[in-house]
Specification:
Order of helices and strands: HHEEHHHHHHHHHHHHHHHHHHHHEE
Strand order of the largest sheet: 1-2
Largest sheet: 2 strands, antiparallel
Number of helices: 22
Distance between the termini: 73 Å
Number of strands: 4
Shape: globular
Radius of gyration: 24 Å
Helix content: over 70%
Structural class: mainly alpha
Number of domains: 3
Length: 542
Amino acid sequence: MSFTIALVSGLALFVPSVLILYAIALTARQATDSSAHAAWKKFRRLTAITALASLIAAVAVWVAHPGTDPVWIIQDWLGLTRFSVIFALLVQGLGLVISTFSARYLEGEHRQIYYITWLACVLGSVQVLIFAQHWIILITAWSAVGLSMQKLLCFYPDRPFALLAARKKQLADRIADLLLILAAGLIWFEVGQGSLAALESHLAAGSAGLTLQIGSILLVVAILIRTALLPAHGWLTQVMEAPTPVSALLHAGVVNLGGFVLIQLAPLLDSVIWARWILIVMGLATTLLAGLVILTRVSIKVRLAWSTIAQMGFMVLECGLGLYTLAALHLIGHSLYKAHAFLRASSTVQDTRVRRMHQPVQYTWPNLVAAPALALLITIPMISLPVQSTGATGLPIWWAVLLAMAWSPLFWQGRQPANLHRFSFRIHLWKLASTFALIVMLSLIIRITHLVPLGVTDSPAPIAGWVSALAMSAFYAVLVCMQVCPARLETLRRWSYAGFYVDELYTRMTLRLWPGQWMPDQSNRRTASRLWMAGGDRPTMP
């Protein structure tokens, strides 16, 4: 049985490696766009086989390997865990959908072979990263993901702001790579080995030394940068000029890799309290800031980008609070939602236009104040109370309070227009019942998935949890004030629209390292100037 699992596990890693080899082959034989149709056909077959191999590996690991130890492909270097096979299946499934969508989306475009090449590299590198059990493999694969994604973001090289955002991402990635190397070196020095399994054994045997604690803090900072949290978040909102399937892949399967690594390194976080507090503070700050910015944005794709930043902040907060199982659920749900949202962005525009046809909704004080009480009435018994018949313990009460504050706006009900006053009671009752059902369903999902054996153990932090719950309550109070007396918060609204100017300093630093210069487009003198993100002498004017 163990040989069969090892064989299946090797297949799950071998097939994505074929994707990378296929990308190299396309580049080596210098395929042209005239052969794009055949290349897409072969690539879709490979992604389908990859998704199937990931599915077989997931079933094999979950059915035949009940333990928490990895199923080794290469001892101490590459291995599969229960959580990693689920995430691998998710990413490769999304890769299949995105590749199918891309073939139609890019039909008639130039540089399709270029796109296929780097998309294959991204999917293959992500699979290697997911199965990495050694610092060398993890850092190398993550760097390869960043470099390949960089190429996809620059698919349209004549779009200046796409290049600017790509440069900002490149700077963030290189800083994160440097911090990762330093962190891995310090941790390796104390543990004596580069294997993640050896690190876990070292932590189980005794407390973490100073060297390991410093390495853990550097590691957390590197992951925060990679996950597009404050203050290195700006590039994620500015890559909207890349093809839509690239945005879907970025938001659904690349930017959230930081959350996956945090969950995999949960024993290390539990041993270094300062690392967890960094996650809590930065995750909470990012969530609250991005949540305010979303309320002021109009562009659909930009709102989705800020939503991703807020969701990444919330997922990092969950990891900092020690709720790793919920973070894993959040990661999977966010990936599915964002892929769906970006791939149907055109329909989202139509839906938004329909919503804007309705009259502005006015909320009342009693409704806004009663909403948290109604949410708490559901979340506390559904999430926090233990189930005596099964012996299952509930989640912390502070987590139920935090979720109640986050879900309270679902209970907001505005005044009905004059022509609907006769139906007002029925409409309010229907909305109230549907919201109750939605929150009950979400609470049940959280409660059930909390019992799924993903191989990670939660370690809640009560003090930090109550601090986070109070911060979320304060955020809800700000939302209420913005609804009731928006004129008094006009300054806050302007600052929110500008993202509180956090990204400006980072942009200036990027432009100092890669100076841009404005020049007329040589192909069309009447077009607007365009920004070339490259150094060198200023071209002469014709």
